[in-house]
Amino acid sequence: MREETRQAVQATRTEFKNELEAKRTEFKNNLEAKRAEVKNKVQTQRVELKEKLAKIKDERKQKLVERISQQIEELNDRQVRHFADVLEKLEKVLEKIGARADRAEEREAEVAVVRSAIESARQAIAASRLAIEAQAAKTYSIEVGAEENLKVDVGGARKALHIDLTAARETVRAAHEAVKKAAVALAQIPRVDEVENQPVE
């Protein structure tokens, strides 16, 4: 019986690892494609912004608005990459939790609660990835109106970025919480570490 359980668990573990790897690769590819699209979009928007700013007489203000526009785009790109890195680390932690749960199951410990928590964490990571992909595709153009309204126009783009990044960050936080719950569920298996360290019969 023990040997059958071990083989079934190992097959599931291999499948789980392969699936995670495939999803990770797909996410990286999607992200790179979105970032390349955005690069082209941003170039076009820069040209358009320059044209709109031509009607602003104060050259110093023109340069300032252009610089802020560039900073907004760079911040978005930096944050998207940061969120993606965090998710990758969370997924690796989840993989370890899954492997420990498998070892506990091989020794006939009850791991249903852990499995459920792992599944919830996987769904939270998947949801966060979608949010990050969507964020990677966004650009923030500054709508230039009258010279005296420049501050408001720039503030609008900054505010939009801030709102969007906060929403994306929340999905990463939710994924983090879900992984933490899976770790807690694993730790609640009686003597999980002892179980792991027993010699395999």
Q: Can you summarize this structure?
A:
By secondary structure, this protein is mostly helical.
Walk me through this protein's architecture:
The protein has helices spanning 2-53, 59-106, 112-136, 150-187, 192-197. The protein has 201 residues and is an all-alpha fold. It has one domain (2-197). α2 packs antiparallel against α3. The longest helix has 52 residues, at 2-53. It is elongated, with a radius of gyration of 24 Å.
Count of DSSP helices?
5
Q: Compute the gyration radius: what is it?
A: 24 Å
Q: Given the C-alpha coordinates, what overall shape results?
A: elongated
How many domains make up the coordinates? 1
Mean pLDDT: 88
Low-confidence stretches: none
SSE topology string: HHHHH
Distance between the termini: 12 Å
Percentage of residues in helical conformation: over 70%
Query: What structural category do the secondary elements indicate?
Result: mainly alpha
| Main beta-sheet annotation | none
**Which band does the percent of strand residues land in?**
under 5%
Number of separate strands: 0
The quaternary state of the protein chains shown equals single chain
Give the topology:
Layout: H1 2-53, H2 59-106, H3 112-136, H4 150-187, H5 192-197
Helix pairs in contact: 1-2, 1-3, 2-3, 2-4, 3-4
